[in-house]
Amino acid sequence: MKDGSYQAKGQGQDGELTVKVTVTDGTLAQVEVVENHETPGVSSRALTDIPKRIVDHQTYDVDVISGATKTSTGISNAVKSALAQANAGTAFSQHVSEVSASDAPVEQLTADLAIIGAGPAGLAAAVAAGEHGLKTVVFEKNGVAGGTANMGMGPLGIDTDIQRQGFNDISVPEALEEHMTYTHYRVDEDLVQTYFNLSADTIKWLQDMGVQFAGAFKYFKESNATWHVVQPDDGSQPGPGAAADMNKHLKARAEKLGATFYLETPATSITTADGKITGITAQANNGQQYAVTASAVLVATGGFGSSKQMLHDELGLNLNEDFFTFNVPGIEGDGLRMMWQAGANKDTTSETVETIYLLPDNFQYFNSDAALRQPNLLINQRGDRFMNEGDMGNTTYTGNALRLQPGNYGYCVMDQSLLDDYKANGPAIADIVHPASCFDDAEGEIEKAQANNYEGIIVADTLSELAEKLGINETKLQQTIDDYNQLCVQNLDTQFHKPAKFLKPIRGNGCYIVGKYFTGAYSTLGGIRTNKFGEVYADATHAVPGLYSAGQDANTIYGDSYNFTLPGNSMGFAVNSGRMAANGIAAYLNERSSKAAVKV
Q1: Using CA atoms, how far apart are residues 53 and 55, in angstroms rounded to an integer?
Q2: For the chain, which terminal residue's Cβ has fewer other Cβ atoms within 10 angstroms, N or C?
Q3: What is the biggest distance separating any 2 CA atoms in the chain, rounded to whole angstroms?
C-alpha cells in the first residue's frame, strides 16, 4: 500500500460517518472515526472497538459489535473505501472473527435473580435487588447498558421536591385522576397508583446515587411538569441522550451492590421445571455459553420496536415503509417470545406503540424536523385538512391522526417567509426536545435534503411544481390553500377551530417548504400482563411462579394511546417498575425461604 493518510465515508445508523486511515511503511497503522452522527451510548463501543479490530487484524472485514451493527458496518465500509485509495490488496478483504468459545464447556452460574436486559428497568431492578441482599446476574445483548434510555432525557416524577421548587407541583391524586380519565379506565389502576406513588421516592433514590436533574419540565404547553430531565455529569446542556448518565450511575450502583453484568451476551431461553422458573440460558457473541440457575427471572428487553417482522405480525405496521421508529439495535421482542414460551399469557389486547410523528431518518434531519412541525397547513394525500394543527404539540394526538390518513402520513406546508418569521421571532410550538435553536441549522438540512432527493422534505418554487412533487391534483391543492388562507384572513378557523394565533396564510413567498410526517413510535408497549409486584400472568388469575417483567415489555398502563400530558412516562415506568418488580421478587424469595424453613 502507498503510505499516507486517506479519508472516506460510510453509512452508519444515524447518518454518514467519516474515517481517517493512516498507512505507514505499507502497513495499516491507524484508523480514526473523525466525524459521526451516531447516538451516544448505543454506538460508543463500535466507534472505539471496530477501528482497533481493523488495525489489529489488518482487515476491514471484522466482526461487528452486537447492538451497533450499522455503525460497525459503516466504519468497515469507509475503511474499505479509504484503503482502495492506497491500492490495498485482497488480503484486506479477508474476514477475521474474534476467538470463538463455542466449543468450551457451558459455564454454570447460580444466582437469586437473573435479569434479561440492562435498560433502565433492568438496571433499576438490579440496584433494588442488591439493596435486598439478592445475588443478581444481568445479561445484555448490546455492548453497553442503558438500552433505549441512552437516547432519552429523563423519567417522570410526581410530587417531588424538584417540582415544588419550580412551583410546578402536581399531586399523585391529581395525576392519577388525569391518567385514568385519559385512558377511560381501561388500565390497571392498582398498577398505575403504585408506580405514581413510588415515583417521587425514585427521583430521590436516583439523586442519592449521584444523578443530577436540570429540573422538572413540560413536554408541550398543555402537559404537566412531570419530566425530570437529567443534567449531564459534564454540565452540558440537557438534550436527547442526557439520560445516559443516569444509566451509568445505576449500573455503577448495581455493581457496587454485587450485581454481575454480562454484556454482548443475549439470553437464549428461560428454563422451567414443573411450571416454575429455574433460570436462563445465554450465549455471548464470542460463543461462550452460560446456564444460570436462578430462583427468579426478570425480563426487561424493551419491546419489539426494531423488529420489522413482529411489528407487522403483531400490529400490522410496516417498519421503514409507512411507520418509523428510532431503530434502536436489539429491541426485537426476544424477551416477550421467551416469556410466552415459558408460560406467560400472550396478551395481544395490550400491544400498542408509544405513538409519535416524525420525518423518516429523523436523526439525519432532526433540526428541520423541528422547524417544519409548526401549526401551519396539515393535509393528507387527498389534499384535505384532517385535524386542528394547533394540537400538533401533542405528538401522540398527531401520530394517531396521521395513522388514519392514506399511507400513515401527512404534509405540513409552509413557505420561506414563514420559516424566516419563526427563525426571527421563535416557533409557534416549541418543546424541550425541539427548541428554537433547531431553526439555526434547519435551512442547511433542507438544502441537504434537496441534494439527496430525500422524500421527507419537499421544496417547490410554484404551486404547480408543489402539486406535481406531492402527487396531489393541482386544482384541489390550490383550492385547499385558498380556503385555508381565507380562514387566516378572517382570523377564524370555522373548520377545525384552530386558535387564531396559529392562523398564518401560506402565499408561497420565497418557496414552498413541506415536511412529510409519518406515524412513528419511540417503542412498543405490552405483550404480557403484570401486576404491581411485577409478576407475569399465565392466565387471568395465576402468575408464572418466579417470572417477573418490567419496562416496555410490561408497560400496559396507557390503553390505546400513550399519555404525553404526563411526560417522562415511559422511562418513569421503566425505572419504577424495575424497583417494584425487585421488591416483589424479594418478597417472593422470602416467602419461599420461610416455607422451606417450616418444612425443615
Answers
A1: 5
A2: C
A3: 86
